[in-house]
Design brief:
The protein has 345 residues and is of the alpha/beta class. The chain has 2 domains: 205 residues, L-asparaginase, N-terminal domain (Rossmann fold, 3-Layer(aba) Sandwich); 116 residues, Rossmann fold. It is built from 9 helices and 20 strands. A hairpin with a 3-residue loop joins β14 and β15. The chain is globular and about 65 Å long. The mean pLDDT is 90.
């Protein structure tokens, strides 16, 4: 046990923070100050555990950039007090929130672990109990007084994933998330195994820098066979539109019809950034690999490589809010800022 380890638990809401009323059966938020009554095992850590709750608690479907700002500011204001942070969050938008925080918290050198549950922590078969216990253990883990996992992560069902590499893929089973294009960072079994070669290396002496602002003038255009031209026009002509995430087929492929290419070229000419992201859960965009993507490359479309839609969305929002021109933004989109993309060798 190590009394010197301090962990701040930030409760935004979600299933994990609910208890079932024994009389009505309804779910209601529980008082986290009494969490040791529900999970007495936490006492065995000997850590200094403190918590702060959003009031009111938020369903993850209502998560917004304003909530991300609040989360980042809580971490920033208490950064020097704690060795790590655990964020309890609903699962539906957890990958978006973890991606956003990964780009907001530049020079992060402490663990920020998102976790949640598919069943309320008060339910008999809850997955929330193990998720919370292990998240706290990971957030407190150090080697030579240096945090083992100094990045924004998601812990769920025995696996720790890089936050900006993660997508929710299952609404039914406990293994709700996957990181299709990047290995897990840790696995909890009889022993805790850390996949150290894949964990970000940080310079501990650099000060935390927080990007607070977002520009949500973006759109997601998912391609499908038979897509209506007016539908495409309605998206590309949104007033004030700054960027489009183009969800393409396979390795970045799209229709070669003249009407489609013309609209892409017009959008780029207007200064709209078009970021090509594959619809596939595994693999990467390789513009120019096939004829059906070479025309996008020639039109000025930016490759998203193997970035998730969640990471692409939040990365764009943050970059667009900075005082950068399009050339700089495109360069940063093709730069791995916090391990969110795998660049070709």
């Amino acid at each position: 046990m190590n009394q010197s380890r301090s962990i701040l638990i930030i409760i935004t809401g979600g299933t994990i923070g609910m208890m079932q009323d024994p009389f009505s059966g309804a779910l209601k938020p529980f008082d986290f100050d009494k969490v040791l009554d529900y999970i007495p095992e936490l006492k065995n850590f000997g850590y200094n555990l403190q918590s702060v709750s959003f009031n009111p608690l938020i369903d993850s479907s209502d998560i917004s950039p304003e909530i991300w700002q609040d989360l980042a500011e809580i971490i920033e204001s208490r950064y020097n007090e704690f060795d790590g942070f655990v964020i309890l969050h609903g699962t539906d938008t957890m990958a978006y929130s973890a991606s956003a925080l990964s780009f907001m918290l530049e020079n992060l050198s402490k663990p920020v672990i998102f976790t949640g549950a598919q069943l309320p922590i008060g339910a008999l078969r809850t997955d929330g109990k193990e998720n919370l216990i292990t998240s706290i253990e990971i957030a407190a883990e150090k080697q030579n007084d240096i945090p083992v996992v100094p990045e924004v992560c998601i812990y769920f069902e025995s696996k720790l994933y890089r936050g900006n590499r993660t997508t929710k893929v299952n609404a039914e089973h406990f293994n709700a998330f996957q990181s299709a294009n990047y290995p897990y960072l840790a696995e909890a079994g009889v022993h805790m195994f850390y996949n150290r070669e894949f964990i970000l290396k940080r310079k501990q002496q650099e000060s935390l820098l927080v990007y607070r602002h977002f520009n949500n003038q973006i759109a997601i255009l998912k391609l499908f066979p038979g897509m209506n031209r007016d539908y495409m026009d309605s998206i590309l002509n949104v007033k004030g539109l700054r960027a489009v995430i183009l969800e393409t087929y396979g390795s970045g492929n799209a229709p070669t019809e003249i009407w489609f290419l013309k609209r892409i070229e017009q959008a780029v000419a207007k200064g709209i950034i078009v970021l090509d992201v594959t619809q596939c859960s595994r693999g990467s965009v390789e513009l120019g690999m096939y004829e059906t993507s070479r025309h996008l490359l020639n039109a000025g479309v930016v490759s998203g490589y193997d970035i998730t839609t969640e990471a692409a969305t939040t990365k764009l929002m943050i970059l667009l809010a900075r005082d950068l021109d399009n050339t700089e933004i495109k360069k940063l989109l093709n730069t791995s800022l916090n391990g969110e993309i795998t660049l070709p060798q």
